[in-house]
Amino acid sequence: GRDAVYARLIQDGRTEPAPRPEADRPAREPEDPDQVHELPIPANAPREGGRRAQVIIQEMGDLQCPFCNRVQATLEQVRQEYGNRVQIVWRDYPLPFHQDAALAAEAAREVKRQRGDAAFFEFIGIVFDNQRELGLDKLVEYARRVSGVNVRRLRQALQQRTHQAAVEADMAAVRGVLGSIGTPTFLINGKKLVGAQPFSAFRDAIDDALQAGTTP
User: Fold this and answer.
1) Confidence (pTM)
2) Which of 172, 153, 90 shows the shortest CA–CA distance to 125?
3) 3-state DSSP call for residue 135?
4) Residue 160 backbone phi and psi in degrees, to 5
5) Mean pLDDT over all residues of the chain?
6) Residue 199: C-alpha distances to residues 10, 71, 76, 81, 204 (Å)
């Protein structure tokens, strides 16, 4: 079934379609784990946590990706442990072979436009809990559970693909700085952390950032 295909796609740790053959790609330097990537945050990006946080975690995510789902509990632990010292910012990166991911991202943007950041994160939580069913009607149904969302306007936004360009612009901005990535990928005050890592990996990266005293 589809799960087997997915397992085969990711068995060697790749969550993007196969890269081009080595011959027509420039040689890549091994990555410096301390490299700081400057990825500007759009003014309207969904955020939760401290407004003046010392550590900004940008989460490049795909709402249909099982690894993005898996890491949510770890991020909840981060929120509990660090409170307002950390802010989590969502960046859209729906992968092309997840057929419902882009529409789910657009639905989340419409929920945010109507009801703000808290509603956005509540909605993506519901989406993560229901990753197997993310068609248009289902997305509208999930949005009904978020207080105050006008689902008629949401359905219209999805049918008209109102937020498609904004999702694509977010992806393009991420790719422009990081190249093609798998999901989830995180920037913690600009330093890259890849995959659904355990809490300890986030703790180490956040503690380093706090110690460095660098402001994001």
Assistant:
1) 0.85
2) 90
3) coil
4) -90, 0
5) 90
6) 22, 9, 10, 10, 9
